[in-house]
Every structure is written in structure tokens, then in C-alpha cells.
Design a protein that fits this description.
about 220 residues, alpha+beta
Length: about 220
């Protein structure tokens, strides 16, 4: 079986080859459709950077949050609790959201601050403890459009904006209500103004916001 990132590169190379061949002669529609379908089925290349250890990694995650065994083991170690060293698989839907963000901001590096946490003092109800949450930022991308995109696109989630700390918290919570907050001066401020604005229907264009309740 080919490594997952090699499959991505092969699919990309195939698409580039067809595009180049399209110069003097048009590419058959069937061949182009096959390449497009293969690229859609291929995993998303996710560029990661650990803010704590200052190390980078690139992994392939499918849009539904699945991956091959080698990638799953690499991610579990990469996202381990920094205080205890303990490891846990991250929730599939959280990884699906991560892949979606990586694809939306293609070629950008996702800098993660915290993922799995089980150290002393961590709340027993924390989504970090369950491996459902990621605190992160994306190089060169302002926090506010990233925050609004996640809140507008997904349901059954928790989205927190940390403007002073400069990161976004996202978690999947399939059995809980959606929760949005802004963290200021050590306090979570729930139901912030931006959460209402981000999900407000766009009446003038007639295009309603889309919500993904599952993957």
C-alpha cells in the first residue's frame, strides 16, 4: 500500500500532467472526471507545527477524519498531552474539521497550541480531556474569519475565540448544544455578538448558511 502522502502527490502530478497535455489537444472529459474524482477521494495534506516543541509535520487526513494506521499513530503522538506524555486518538469529527480548514487555507501551516490534555487541574468536562478539541492558529490568517467560518459551517461544536492569546479553540460535541465564547481577562464570555452575526442568514443573496451536523 502506498503511503498516504505519496498518494496525494501522485494524484496531483496526474492532474498537472493532464492539464499540461490540454495545451494543443483537449483532455477527454472522462479522463478529467477520473482525475477530479481521485483528487476528491485523496486525503487532504495538512501541514502542522507544534508551538510547544517547535517541530513540524505534514500528514494526510481524509475529509471524513479517517487516515491510515501510520498517520493515526503519528498524530496520536504529535497531539499527546504535553504535561503527562499520555496519548489518545483524536475524535474523528474533530480531525475532519481540521482537514476541512487545511483544505480551505491550502498551503498554510496550522500551528497548534494544545490538543489532548489530562494533566492535574484539567476540568473533567474539558473536551481536551476527551481528545475532541484543538487550540490552533493558521499562519497569515486573521482569527476572526477563521472563527466565523467554523461557527457558520458546523453544528454540534464548541468554538472559542482567544484574541489576547491569539488562537481559536474548536471541538466536536455531538451530544451537547453548540457553544461559542470569547475569552477575555481570564473569563469565558458566552453567546458573543460574533456568534449571532456569523450564523445570520444572508437575505440579500438568498444563500442560507450551511451547517454540517456530521461527517
Amino acid at each position: 500500500m502506498l503511503p498516504i502522502l505519496l498518494k496525494i502527490k501522485l494524484a496531483t502530478a496526474a492532474a498537472a500532467g493532464l492539464a499540461a497535455a490540454a495545451g494543443p489537444m483537449p483532455v477527454p472529459a472522462e479522463a478529467l472526471a477520473i482525475v477530479i474524482a481521485e483528487r476528491a477521494a485523496a486525503p487532504v495534506e495538512v501541514k502542522l507545527y507544534d508551538e510547544n516543541l517547535q517541530i513540524g509535520a505534514t500528514v494526510g487526513i481524509h475529509r471524513d477524519g479517517t487516515m491510515d494506521e501510520a498517520t493515526a499513530a503519528e498524530l496520536k503522538h504529535l497531539f499527546r498531552c504535553r504535561q503527562t506524555g499520555r496519548e489518545r486518538p483524536i475524535a474523528r469529527r474533530t480531525l475532519a474539521m481540521l482537514a476541512d480548514v487545511a483544505e480551505k487555507y491550502d498551503t498554510r501551516t496550522i500551528e497548534f497550541v494544545s490538543v489532548y490534555r489530562v494533566q492535574a487541574g484539567e476540568s473533567p468536562t474539558s473536551p481536551h480531556r476527551d481528545g475532541r478539541a484543538i487550540d490552533f492558529r493558521i499562519r497569515g490568517v486573521p482569527l476572526t474569519p477563521l472563527r466565523d467560518y467554523l461557527w457558520r459551517t458546523y453544528t454540534e461544536v464548541g468554538i472559542g475565540w482567544y484574541p489576547a492569546e491569539q488562537f481559536i479553540h474548536m471541538d466536536s460535541r455531538p451530544t451537547l448544544h453548540d457553544t461559542a465564547w470569547t475569552f477575555l481577562t481570564g473569563v469565558n464570555h458566552y453567546h458573543p455578538y460574533w456568534s449571532e452575526a456569523a450564523r445570520r442568514p444572508v437575505v440579500e443573496t438568498g444563500v442560507p448558511p450551511r451547517h454540517r451536523s456530521g461527517v
